[in-house]
Amino acid sequence: MNESKARFWDALSTPSGQQDKQNAVSESLATPKKFYRAADGTLTWSYNVNNTDQTASGIVPSEFSTYDPMGPADQARTYKSSKPNVIQNENLVLTQAPEYNTSVTVSALLSSARYARYASLYPDNEQFQALSNQEVSATFTVAGEKGEQAPEQNPDPSQLVSVTVSVVGLDKDGKPQHWAPTQTIEVRKGSTADQVTYQYLRSNGLTYDAAGGYLSSITSPTQSLTLATAQVDGAYKWWQFFVNGQLSDKMANNVTLDKKTQLLPGSMVVRIALFQLLKTSW
Question: Does the predicted TM-score (pTM) go above 0.70?
Answer without folding.
Answer: no
